[in-house]
Write a structure and sequence with these properties.
This protein is α+β, with helices and mostly antiparallel strands. The chain has helices spanning 3-12, 36-49, 52-56, 72-78, and strands at 20-21, 24-33, 64-70, 83-85. It is globular.
């Protein structure tokens, strides 16, 4: 999907932040590139900065997807990336 469309979906689902799931607490809803190589670059930036907006910025003209970030502290500390699709938590 286009970045502009993803922003709308994120805003429509902001209420999911703080919701408990079977794999942990939702800390953030993020937009990331669909392409696997670009997704890995996104993850590196996200882990380094802890900022999803900064991490997606280089990729706003690419095809994107949306996920819920689970346990953001663990991602930043241990560099273990936990996320789930929004469809899995509604």
């Amino acid at each position: 999907m286009k970045y502009k469309d993803a922003i709308k979906i994120v805003n429509d689902n902001i209420n999911l932040i703080g919701k408990k799931t079977n794999i942990g607490l939702i800390d953030e809803i993020v937009i990331y590139p669909t392409d696997e190589n670009l997704k890995e670059e996104f993850k590196k930036i996200y882990i380094k900065t802890g900022n999803a907006n900064e991490a997606i910025n280089p990729f706003i003209n690419e095809d994107v997807e949306i996920s819920a970030i689970i346990n953001k502290k663990m991602i930043i500390k241990q560099k273990i990336f936990f996320s789930t699709n929004l469809e899995n938590i509604k």
